Amino acid sequence: MNNKPEVSIIMPVYNVEKYVAESLDSVLNQTFKDFELICVNDGSVDNCWDIVKEYAASDKRIKLFDNGKNLGQSVSRNFGLDTANGNYIMFMDSDDFIHQQTIEIALYFIKKYDGDIVNWRIKHLWKKDDNIDNSLYEDFNKIDMKVSLNPILMFESGVMNSSCNKLFNRDIVGNTRFIEGVKFEDNAFVLELLYKKPKMVILDSQLYNYVCYNSGSSMRMRFSEKTFSDYNIVFRRIYDVWKDAPKAETKLIKDHLFKESKNFMRAIRKQDYPDNIRCAFANMIADMDSVGWLKMPKDLRKIDKIKHLIRLKYYIRKYANKKGAK
Questions:
Q1: Which of 211, 233, 262 is the last residue of a domain?
Q2: Which one, of 277, 272, 169, 177, lies nearest residue 231 by Cα?
Q3: pTM given for the model
Q4: Does residue 146 contact residue 231 with C-beta atoms inside 8 Å?
Q5: Do 182 and 79 lie in a common domain?
Q6: 324 within a domain of the structure (yes/no)
Q7: Under DSSP, is residue 322 helix (H, G, I), strand (E, B) or coil?
Q8: Is 249 within the bounds of a domain?
């Protein structure tokens, strides 16, 4: 191996004592061996960091760094980017795990097509006994795939949903960094990279296993004021990057934001939220509306569009800029 690894894998570590060993094993048992695994302790208070240190003692590919306190996933990822030595970059959550050939397959395709990003599918694991296919791929050329020179046009196929289901050429990442201190940071990071019109290889294979059955993963997330203020910060970053892009491209993002607002609205209406949460949601929606980014996508039924738009306008009128909203 060269002193400079081919791939840098960045893994923030925070309170994942039950899962981190399986996550580390999935990386260290990769068929491709020339990588560094950058583990950043983000103020864990359980035993997970001791487990990581035990692994590092027997494998020099693991590089250990410690934030000293809980600073958030984005800070850890950005530190990893600043520290990484590899020609290619991957991100992993420390309670997830990857297929044994993930790195080998991703490198094969990014080099074959001289790509900037390789994207693959995520398998969501809702139960510990969910079936996982870790069998070896004998012929990579049999993997269904496509190459896009403008992957924002593949927006609805999920290319922007996560930074963890991608291999990035270091050059395409450049100085792009995650917004620190907010949720939904993946959306802004990936969309900033897609604005550069990278050549993306999109693989129809599930090479990343996302664990949903731990205590930190829940479909029924309770919203807070911070949820909507964070989403608004992310939206503003996306808007600033994409506001002057061709209409056909920004329309896809606008459609997504409209559908997201519909999901938020449905959750807020079904649960008993105090006015300060409703105010935060209304201010986020008002901000989108003020720049013309709250447009109705054509693939929604007309009656659904009208009902939802009326509800959004009602929330803006009743709650936006009221006391208690940030």
A1: 211
A2: 277
A3: 0.89
A4: no
A5: yes
A6: no
A7: coil
A8: yes
